[in-house]
Amino acid sequence: MIDDTAKHEELIEILTSVLGDFRHHHPTKTQMAFNCPTCAEIKGSIDGKYNLEVHYGKGVYNCWSCGETHGTHGTIYDLINRFGSPNDLAMYTALNMQYEYTANENVPERKNDNLLLPPEFVSLVGKEKFGVYKQAYIYMNGRGITPAIIEKFHIGWCYAGQYEDRILIPSVTEEGTWNFFTARAMRKFVNPKYLNCDLDKELIVFNEALVNWDKTVFVVEGPFDHIVTPNSIPMLGKKLYPLLHSTIYDNANSNVVVLTDPDAIDAGIEIYRQLDGGRLLGRVYINIMPTFYDPAKFFEKFGWVAYKEQLKQSKRLVD
Asked: E strands, 16-94, where?
């Protein structure tokens, strides 16, 4: 187990080196207060009010005086990067590496069993846009989904059975077999919108075989967000379950971007903070989609060029 007390003692030394003396230290809550450097710059001197609260257990900080107006809030990494020296930042990074960062405890064993797709499943790859396939193609075309995307993600359609009139997106393993699938209703007002296969989604990483871990990885909510977002992994929900968390942490060699729907900003920030530690420290970004648009809807409405520009807006939680 990690000795959090020892780690916190070293972290407090780094924080005092950067920010000076502190007040209102609550070790059980892992919170303490410092004088705010930004407030001192604005006022021309240290005000002695200790408005800069640091929650070193969660790795975040906020100034209750200028946090909203001057962006004095974010992660401790950003705090030290903003106000400390390169040596302070190097010490903080080394501290996080010294105490092994565990993305999650009790990570379950993954299941990559060969899964049979429903007998009513028909692949849409290379099919003509008429006859029984016409309705599926009209739906996919209306959402901006190209034949190239259909082929890459092995997308199909079910004409009958439990998943009737649903677009089915399977998850492929590195061995080229299926280990999961989800089916999206084409008709409006059908509930539930998505039906998953009868397996636990938390025991697989959806389309892990398609991820290039040496490039920026995007973490998205749903399967349609996934198929329009390059090098992405869908959570199939709004939470980062333990196996997916540890897989990203162990394998990502570049940046990780959390794509967040406008109605789930708090959840997105929580995922950002869960990932921003250890070997990923400082390499996690967030991208909050414009109001009324999740990634798939944005892609559908504005196309790839505009969506690519939106992805470039990813940022650290500093301002």
From this structure: 22-26, 31-34, 52-55, 60-63, 73-75
